[in-house]
Amino acid sequence: KGLEQARKPKPIVFAAAVDEFLNHCLVEHADHTNTSERVKTSMASLLAMFRNRAVTSIGTPDVERYRVWRLTDSPDAKAVKLVTLRHDLDNFSKFFEWAIRMGYTTLNPVRGVTKPSIENAVRMYILSDAEEFLYFELALARSIDLHDVATLIVNQGMRPEEVIEIE
């Protein structure tokens, strides 16, 4: 009976578990702040779908619905590129591996979902805070429009092509 109780997951709402997981990531990736930021970005879209759900109630069909939702334009969000979805699913899987270790669930439902290939993905370089500051300084000296577009990209998380498409 004691063994059975030890295996029973502790009930926790997804949003509360994500807060704890993000704190864990800050410590785990203290030397790689971009990694923590990427995990945080993935968790934001996952929170939009699973915020008030119990971690144990999220199954493979739910992850599949999330996958389709992220790839489809909806009133809630614009469709993302396959590489973005791949990162989101990778981070969701890391979340569940952590949640298993914490005793919040016993299964990783992401394992049953096909992740998009990143074979042809475009790699990008993420600026450090110092590089970003220098860029904004130079952009402002060159053109207020360039500075404003860069501000939109950084503050809203938009891609350059998304800013250009704005009417």
Describe this structure in words.
The model has no long low-confidence stretch (mean pLDDT 86). This protein is mainly α and 167 residues long. It has 8 helices and no strands. The chain has helices spanning 2-7, 14-28, 33-50, 60-70, 82-102, 129-142, 144-156, 160-165.
The unreliable regions are none
Beta strand count: 0
Mean of the pLDDT scores? 86
Q: Radius of gyration in whole Å, from Cα?
A: 19 Å
Count up the helices. 8
Helix-strand pattern: HHHHHHHH
Given helix and strand content, the structural type is mainly alpha
- Which of globular, elongated, flat, extended, rod-shaped describes the shape? globular
Largest sheet composition: none
Question: What is the percentage of strand-forming residues?
Answer: under 5%
First-to-last CA distance = 64 Å
* Fraction in helix: 55-70%
Quick take:
The chain contains 8 helices and no strands. The protein is mainly alpha-helical.
Which SSEs are present, and which pair or pack?
Blueprint (H helix, E strand, L loop, with lengths): L1 H6 L6 H15 L4 H18 L9 H11 L11 H21 L26 H14 L1 H13 L3 H6 L2
Helix pairs in contact: 2-3, 3-5, 6-7
Features:
about 170 residues
